[in-house]
What does this fold into?
Amino acid sequence: MFDRILDPTGLSTGPANVATAARRVPSLAGARVGLLNNTKQNAKELLTEVGRLLESRYGATVTIQRTKPHVAFPVDEPMLKEIAAVSDVVVTGVGDCGSCSASAAADGIAFEREGIPTAVIVTEAFEVTARAMAEVHGDKDFEILLTPHPVAVLNAEQIAQRAADLVAVVASRVSEGV
Amino acid sequence: MRDEARLEQMRSTLAVDGYHLSVEELGSGFDVRITADPESCADCLVPKKVMVSMLEPILGVGAEEIRLTYPSDAQ
It folds into this structure.
């Protein structure tokens, strides 16, 4: 009767109050990067550009790029597994509203618990909801990478600059050797 | 105990998306109402279950003590 009943908290797919930090990759050289965008305006473009910079500046390789089917819900388990299977690190975002910032935090924690170091990008205006969701998932100190709000109205040149501003902290977030 | 600073942060964040938060004490719990500006993005508000979970540590009570009303409840 029902295909699937989605749990908007994302907690039904994993335990809460469990340590979430996956081991960081020693280096991004040769690392496989998964990109998960949440359908927000310019999220795909920003993540694509971050991925391109991780390749050109750090020697990583983008192996998969996926778009969540719904902005407000955490990534579902099949997509999580699909991305995790071909990624050493993940970059996800952009949390540019209340619901998507919350689900981005949930996604980050889910990937970390899957053993994949993950960079979660959220705009500064929605840090509160991202951190509140991280607390719901048992990790109120989960690291979230902030970028100025909004991202949705940026043009191509501004997106490129924003990605350039972010890539170093993304790299530091997911690897040891930066 | 209710964390006023965090509550105010949540109020400010919701306002960015065009939502307005009011909180009234109701016995041992809270009556929480979120209303929406006409132009607010319907997908931008977290689901009610998520909002209650977020409010629990901020209000210092369990979910059963939070009565939450969403814009969609008024329709």
User: Anything to note?
Assistant: Chain B touches chain A through 21 residues (CB under 8 Å). Strands of chain B lie at 19-26, 29-36, 66-69.
